[in-house]
Specification:
147 residues; alpha+beta
Length: 147
């Protein structure tokens, strides 16, 4: 009985000693970062969602998956408009000024294009190469990327 207790105590001591270090490594190694929940408006500013919504653009689940992969590569989540120094950089870091197109070429192939719309961002902004096109497979892998 004494040996079993001693072994358990050593395991606990190792866990207490290495746990915080491994926990920190695990978060960065696995790509986890602070997730910011989307802002919600106060109840007096909320809108009523209609019972039926028509029109718009329908994206299938696989299209959304391909779009998510391309978005993460084109502009990683830690790139923020307020951290950019130039007006062009601020525009490129803000999804409101990026026109996006998703095309399903086959069951397992998607093309995603990003085109900056700098005229919507501000007058006089010029950017020669700021867009990108991605080929993404149904498994979420980037097959090709280019400008």
């Amino acid at each position: 009985m004494k040996g079993g207790y001693r072994g358990w105590g050593a395991s606990v001591r190792r866990l207490l000693a290495w746990g915080p270090v491994l926990g920190l490594c695990g978060c960065s190694a696995s790509g986890l970062y602070r997730f910011e929940k989307p802002e919600r408006v106060p109840a007096n500013e909320a809108v009523k969602i209609p019972g039926q919504i028509e029109g718009g653009v329908k994206l299938t689940g696989p299209m959304m998956a391909a779009l998510k992969v391309a978005m993460a590569d084109f502009r990683p989540p830690w790139i923020a408009p307020e951290k950019q120094d130039t007006p062009e950089g601020k525009c490129l870091a803000d999804w409101r000024y990026i026109d996006t197109r998703v095309v399903q070429a086959s069951d397992d192939l998607f093309y995603v294009t990003f085109s900056p719309n700098l005229s919507a961002c501000g007058p006089g902004l010029v950017l020669l190469d700021g867009g990108a096109v991605y080929a993404i497979d149904g498994q979420g892998r980037i097959l090709a990327a280019g400008e």
